[in-house]
């Protein structure tokens, strides 16, 4: 069986970055930048007041108190369009441009007004309460790098840079196909030998959280022609994910349907738990990733393989999921030849260190255990038995969108 690392490497190598598209800056949060924008103006465009008060020349107030003559005002959105003379001051408000010659602001709390005479009760230093031109950014600046996932903070900055459109990578379009006579959708009548399908809904939610556009097909019954038709439709997407039906049993029809349509099978078993029956196939530009049907196996495999494939389509690294160090809360037995992803709870001890407690039941059909968990304890193949307090590697759900 193929190792998890080798399977990951083969999958991510099969994907290239998707083309770019232009979208409104208002719609860009969460998208991946394809081309960094340049600031189209300087901000602030001139020296501005950071406070309500009076614009002055610092040299006119060598000591306090000093009286100056009020000659005008400069509100935000307006200006005083004359040079400030010796002994003069201008009433100014936050965001107002400094008059020519002014180099400091005395805040209104440190002044006393008597008609046109303003007494300064504090001697300012040059630059006090002044936002210098270009303090935020200057025309031509490129504050973002290609591949950045844009946040609300980023789109606010881009908008302030007077950039109305951004070049971002197109969202991966991912088809999701569940197969099997035993499946029904939530809310439908459940027969004696049937179960409610949850894996497709879970994968669609993860795809959406990871920046993709999921298309959730209707459940395909165990009919070879129907499955072939659905695969043909799914192959028009950037990736087709099949759920179940990828093993070698008499009723596992997905592999045969793929081969009938000219797909070459790369692999179909990997040395991991949960998730052994993982399949990857390709034909020209079409890619198919077959995930196991058990819902926990589905979600673990989606994290390990679908997410990095999507990252590659978005011109990101597509590296294996990041792990962090924690200490075991209990003893664990030795592991077999498969890499094990153990559902577990993360807490912190008195010193702030991470402590991981595996759930006592690890059946891959138990979504309640996955919902209880906040991490996966990663056990390498043939990992020896370990005592409580031993250092281990965990995948922390709190750092992953869509899982916490």
> N- to C-terminal separation?
31 Å
Fraction of residues in helices?
10-25%
Q: Overall mean pLDDT score?
A: 95
Evaluate the radius of gyration: 31 Å
Low-confidence stretches: none
Sum up the overall morphology in one term: elongated
The total number of structural domains is 4
What is the CATH topology descriptor of the largest domain? Molybdenum Cofactor Biosythetic Enzyme, Chain A
Strand residue content: 25-35%
Number of strands: 25
Task: Supply the CATH class of the largest domain.
Answer: Alpha Beta
Q: Mind telling me which CATH architecture of the largest domain this is?
A: 3-Layer(aba) Sandwich
CATH superfamily of the largest domain: MoaB/Mog-like domain
Question: What is the number of helices?
Answer: 7
For the largest beta-sheet, the strand count, sense and barrel status come to: 6 strands, mixed
Structural class: alpha/beta
User: In what order do the strands lie side by side in the largest sheet?
Assistant: 7-4-6-5-9-8
List the main descriptive attributes of the protein structure presented here.
alpha/beta; Molybdopterin biosynthesis moeA protein, domain 3; 404 residues; 7 helices; Molybdenum Cofactor Biosythetic Enzyme, Chain A; 18% helix; Molybdopterin biosynthesis moea protein, domain 2; elongated
């Amino acid at each position: 069986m193929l190792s998890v690392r080798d399977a990951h490497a083969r999958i991510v190598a099969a994907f290239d970055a998707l083309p770019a598209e232009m979208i409104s800056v208002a719609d860009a949060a969460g998208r991946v930048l394809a081309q960094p924008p340049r600031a189209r103006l300087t901000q602030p465009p001139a020296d501005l007041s950071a406070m309500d008060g009076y614009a002055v020349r610092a040299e006119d107030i060598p000591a306090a108190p000093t009286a100056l003559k009020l000659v005008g005002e400069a509100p935000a959105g307006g200006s005083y369009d004359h040079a400030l003379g010796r002994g003069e001051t201008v009433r100014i408000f936050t965001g107002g441009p400094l008059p020519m010659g002014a180099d400091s602001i005395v805040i209104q709390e440190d002044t006393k007004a008597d008609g046109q005479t303003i007494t300064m009760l504090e001697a300012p230093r040059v630059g006090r309460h002044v936002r210098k031109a270009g303090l935020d950014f200057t025309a031509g600046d490129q504050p973002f790098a290609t591949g950045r996932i844009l946040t609300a903070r980023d789109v606010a900055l881009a908008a302030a840079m007077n950039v109305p459109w951004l070049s971002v990578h197109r969202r991966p379009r991912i088809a999701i196909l569940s197969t099997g006579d035993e499946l029904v959708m939530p809310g439908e009548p459940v027969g004696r030998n049937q179960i409610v399908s949850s894996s497709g809904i879970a994968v669609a939610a993860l795809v959406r959280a990871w920046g993709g556009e999921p298309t959730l097909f209707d459940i395909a019954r165990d009919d070879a022609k129907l499955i072939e038709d659905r695969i043909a439709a799914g192959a028009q997407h950037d990736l087709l994910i099949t759920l179940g039906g990828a093993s070698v049993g008499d009723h596992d029809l997905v592999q045969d349907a793929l081969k009938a349509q000219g797909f070459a099978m790369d692999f179909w078993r990997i040395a991991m738990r949960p998730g052994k029956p993982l399949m990857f196939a390709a034909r020209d530009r079409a890619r198919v990733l077959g995930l196991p049907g058990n819902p926990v196996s589905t979600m673990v495999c989606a994290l390990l393989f679908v997410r990095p494939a999507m990252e590659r389509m978005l011109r990101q690294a597509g590296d294996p999921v990041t792990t962090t160090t924690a200490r075991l809360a209990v003893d664990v037995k030795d592991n077999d030849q498969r890499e094990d992803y153990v559902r577990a709870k993360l807490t912190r001890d008195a010193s702030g260190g991470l402590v991981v407690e595996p759930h006592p039941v690890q059946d891959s059909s138990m979504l309640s255990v996955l919902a209880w968990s906040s991490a996966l304890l990663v056990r390498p193949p043939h990992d020896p038995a370990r005592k409580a307090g031993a250092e281990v590697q965990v995948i922390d759900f709190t750092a992953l969108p869509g899982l916490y």
